[in-house]
Specification:
This protein has one domain (22-254). It is built from 13 helices and four strands. It has a four-stranded mixed β-sheet. A hairpin with a 5-residue loop joins strand 3 (94-96) and strand 4. The protein is mainly alpha-helical. Helix 1 runs antiparallel to helix 7, helix 5 crosses helix 10 (196-205) and helix 9 runs parallel beside helix 12 (226-237).
Length: 257
Amino acid sequence: MRNTGIVFTLVLLFSSCGGSWIPHELDLMLGKQSNTFIEENTNQFKIIEPEEAPFAYERIEAIRDEILASGLVKNKDKFNWELKIVHDDSVLNAFCLPGGYIYVYTGLIKYLNSEAALAGVIGHEMAHADQRHGVQQMVKNMGLGLLMQYIFGVDNSGLVNIGANLLSLSFSRSDESEADALSVKYLYKTNYDARGAAHFFEQIEKDQKNEGMLEFASTHPNPENRVQEIEKYWQELGAKKGELFEARYQKIKSSLP
């Protein structure tokens, strides 16, 4: 009964704040559970270990680290930001769980043509986690009370598949636009072409029938004039030219299983 009272009090407190303050522990706990779900489902998620593809991990972790060093990631020191590569050439996707667990599919890596484009996608996904879009969607879908009960272990019924459910969350178009804008801002602080995400979206617009895009499209609704908006964000920052790093990217692709 004591835990129930704590949950009820916290729900009232968060509700009185309009739901604007949700503890970061919720991101970490939900991300950890979803991460555990991935690790346990080895048939669905075949993780490539760093020793199997050291150069790919070195370069992709360098992308992550440059984004974190931008000074714009609010939860840089609060979240995990662990990165893993998933071996599935048929899936053109990447995602970042609440709490900062980053997953990139080999299908996406092999599909893209430049390191800047991959950096743009990773920046976009990290922005979703940093802005806590996934947790906000979970609260919207399930209710803060139920999630808080889960955190405090009051009632876990109906939540055994929360890890899987988190992976299939669909972001809103406003979430997508915010993640696009932040990806540009993150990369603008680096040597990459800050429009990296636009290169990705331009490529998939030309290749709409590719079945590998289905998973990405199902969770990332396409805002109107997406590529043009990314270009506008870049122009507003000063239109600094960056590098694509295409030759180096070919080495990443060839280093993968």
